[in-house]
Amino acid sequence: MLEQALDFKDESDAVHALIDPFDEGDYDKPTQFKKWTANHILQHLHFYNVLADLSLTNEDEFIRRYDEMKQLREAGGDILSATDELLNGLKGRLLKNAWRDYYRDMGDRWIKADPKQRLKWAGPTMSARSSISARLMETWSHAQALYDNLGVVRQNTDRIKSVAVLGVNTFGWTFSNRDEDVPAERPYVRLEAPSGMTWEWGDKSDQNYVMGPAEAFCMVVTQTRNIGDVTLDVGGDVATEWMSKAQCFAGVPRDAPKPGARFVCVT
């Protein structure tokens, strides 16, 4: 059983419960994330859920759909307009329902997948475990903008361990993606899980480390919070540099939000 698929489905269900009361007008309210609306976020999650699913179930169709997106982007379209076109303008509650129905079916399929199966993606191939973990990470990170807008403090669970693992595993990527030398010594990471468990990676060090709540670490590596806005204990030049620009997702280098730019709104 691919447990990350269960976590992906459960995390998506939590987001669905958050937005299920939305009226149609609520889907067009801008968030703190690049002024993306709920429509933008759901379109983005839904389209890339479909792509990831096709990489498992129909590689030829995955290539065709990915090439459609690539051609629209190369023709000058941004990711939002391209996704809207490829989804035929699907928005509002119809979009929410389509996203929900698809991720639930997808989760059931991926539970049975071979975790080590190699799947095509935009860059190098990924294991099925890494692919569904990435979908969980994307769902969790983009949903933060919705929680913030609604003034809701999210109650996280240990599902976020997959996000933390991606954050740790992309230490080198954060630097190489910026054409920078990857530091030889990786920081020691010690995180407090929502359940109270302790998660650790790397060799223990009191000179080069990141310690604190797992939620805070996940927010930093997904760039939903600035390092200055969370309670992480960071020691050493390498760890400090990493946390200033950590990026656990693919694509061109992105900068973390400015201090204080993203927060839970008071309603």
Please explain how this structure is put together.
With 267 residues, this protein is an alpha+beta fold. The protein has two domains: 3-135, dinb family like domain (Four Helix Bundle (Hemerythrin (Met), subunit A), Up-down Bundle); 162-245, no CATH class. The chain is built from ten helices and six strands, in the order αααααββαααβββαβα. Strands 4-3-5-6 form a four-stranded mixed sheet. Strands 1-2 form a two-stranded antiparallel sheet. β1 and β2 form a beta hairpin. α1 (3-19) runs antiparallel to α5 and α7 (161-169) crosses α9 (214-221). The N and C termini lie far apart (41 Å).
Brief rundown of the structure:
The protein is an alpha+beta fold and 267 residues long. The protein has helices at 3-19, 38-57, 59-74, 79-86, 92-111, 128-150, 161-169, 171-176, 214-221, 237-245, and strands spanning 118-119, 126-127, 188-192, 198-201, 209-213, 233-235.
